[in-house]
Write a structure and sequence with these properties.
This protein is mainly alpha-helical. The protein is 62% helix and 9% strand.
């Protein structure tokens, strides 16, 4: 076994391997194999890697809901991707919005975004998404 492999195995044994954030023994927010998010955080390249991966996952979620998703205008796709960052399960609670989009009623879909608990939580972001949906 190479030094690199042995080192990674030792660190995994000592630090653990977690795919969700947790608080370590000294109160620091940690993830992965001992990544101290409280002190080290993430650098720009790591954030970009996560963003790109999340976009791919989100687009797959949207394609499962809207098989014609790639036929939507760029602005509508961007709006829906931004909205869908809440997660597929939560996005599926926007039943009337989804129904409106499937029926081609973008104004109704925008109204459903504005008239949602989500809009109350995110404020102007929801207004911008609704505008992008109606403008196409």
């Amino acid at each position: 076994m190479s030094f690199d492999s042995e080192l990674k195995a030792l660190l995994r044994k000592h630090e653990g391997w977690r795919n969700k954030p947790y608080i370590d023994t000294v109160g620091k927010m940690t993830i992965g194999c001992g990544r101290n998010l409280s002190d080290r955080g993430l650098d720009d390249s790591e954030i970009m890697f996560l963003l790109e991966k999340d976009i791919v996952i989100t687009m797959a979620d949207l394609l499962s809901i809207f098989p014609n998703f790639m036929d939507f205008s760029d602005r509508r796709r961007m709006a829906l991707i931004s909205l869908a960052f809440i997660g597929k399960e939560r996005l599926l609670t926007f039943k009337k919005m989804i129904q409106a989009i499937k029926g081609g009623d973008w104004h109704k879909a925008a109204d459903e975004v504005i008239d949602s608990k989500y809009a109350a939580q995110v404020g102007h972001r929801a207004v911008e998404i609704a505008s992008m949906l109606t403008e196409g």
